[in-house]
Amino acid sequence: xxxxxxxxxxxxxxxxxxxxxxxxxxxxxxxxxxxxxxxxxxxxxxxxxxxxxxxxxxxxxxxxxxxxxxxxxxxxxxxxxxxxxxxxxxxxxxxxxxxxxxxxxxxxxxxxxxxxxxxxxxxxxxxxxxxxxxxxxx
Length: 138
Known about the structure:
Nucleoside Triphosphate Pyrophosphohydrolase; four-stranded mixed β-sheet; globular
């Protein structure tokens, strides 16, 4: 008897760590029906075929929180396996943007101090991002 194992595709996600002029980071709360729903995250979304990470991040931040990126740089990349999903997070540091952040898809959004990030419940894949942000602070 042979057992076939389905190969799951790793989902490529563009993530923005968005910092405002008050040195606060923008968080969005995942809607309950989504994977890791009810947890806080850094905004972003799937990189579509034919898109660069920057193009995907620009599109997703406009669609999700109504911000237009004007300055961004690569921060880090994380590959994480959840029991039911595999993700590749391409994280960018966004220090220039225009617009007023709000949850276009009905999600809560909130600006928080870097030191308060540890007080929020994030998906496991986001923990190294928080560590990196705090490391940059010291």
